[in-house]
Design a protein that fits this description.
By secondary structure, the chain is of the alpha/beta class. It folds into 2 domains: 5-98 and 187-223, 2-Layer Sandwich (Nucleotidyltransferase, domain 5); 106-182, Nucleotidyltransferase, domain 5 (2-Layer Sandwich), CATH 3.30.420. The chain is built from 7 helices and 10 strands. It has helices spanning 38-53, 72-86, 98-104, 144-154, 170-176, 189-197, 216-223; strands at residues 5-10, 16-22, 25-32, 62-66, 93-96, 110-119, 122-130, 134-143, 160-164, 181-182. The strands form 2 sheets. A 5-stranded mixed beta sheet has the order 3-2-1-4-5, with helices on both faces. It starts with a strand and ends with a helix.
Length: 225
């Protein structure tokens, strides 16, 4: 059976990336970590990746998009771009979680803790036990101290790897887990594509942003009422 052609991309955080895959095999990938102009840079990057493998959008069997959590603006860019590309040709889509993507990109045996900086001491985070791949802490948006307290309750003597933006909170993490290990590898679209290759796709209009919490403007408005 022919391997499906997948376009995967991410603009949910500081970096952007796009990748072309046949099934779980990565054919091409582009990555930038400028932290700027995602709305301007993403489509040219996608076009360049497709050109490099000789594909047109209409050739795709699936579009995989990192749908959050992350930057609210970046997440909206990701989801709207996926819908715009998929709609004319009714290409099936897969919305992939950024935390899951970070966790599954590692080959670590033990607890893997993907973490993204949500500002003001808060994190988007979860935790997985590998090699089983079992999620032992669900996706959450909380203060780093609260997350570490929750992790202490489920982590016994297992090895622990923190990834994503965890290095930002290195001192707090090492105070709680002195033997913790860190990975600074960035989130890459190819990892999301590999996850999407094994996932049942949905229609383009069924992919939704994964926010975990309200945008700042809404939170401020709630505090004033």
């Amino acid at each position: 059976m022919r391997a499906i052609k997948i376009l995967a991309f991410d603009a949910s955080g500081k970096s952007i990336s796009a990748a072309a895959l046949e099934g779980a095999r990565i054919l091409a990938e582009s990555f930038e970590n400028t932290g700027l102009n995602h709305s301007v840079r993403l489509l040219p990057m996608i076009s360049a990746v497709l050109d490099s493998v000789g594909w047109k959008v209409r050739d795709l069997d699936r579009i995989a998009v990192v749908a959050g959590p992350g930057s609210f603006t970046g997440v909206r860019i990701c989801v709207s771009t996926a819908r715009a590309l998929a709609q004319p040709f009714e290409i099936p889509c897969a919305a992939v979680n950024s935390l899951e993507t970070l966790a599954c990109a590692n080959t670590f045996i033990g607890i893997v803790c993907p973490m993204l900086d949500a500002r003001a001491g808060q994190v988007y985070a979860s935790a997985y036990m590998f090699p089983e791949g079992e999620r032992i802490i669900g996706d959450t948006a909380v203060h780093i101290d609260e997350y570490l307290d929750t992790l202490k309750a489920v982590a016994r003597r297992e090895r622990i790897l923190f990834c994503g933006d965890a290095i930002t909170f290195r001192d707090k993490i090492l105070t709680a887990f002195p033997n913790a290990l860190f990975s600074t590898a960035p989130l890459r679209a190819s990892a999301a594509g590999i996850i999407a290759a094994e996932r049942a796709p949905v229609r383009f209009d069924e992919i939704l942003p994964i926010y975990l919490r309200k945008p700042q403007a809404e939170r401020l408005a709630d505090n004033q009422t």
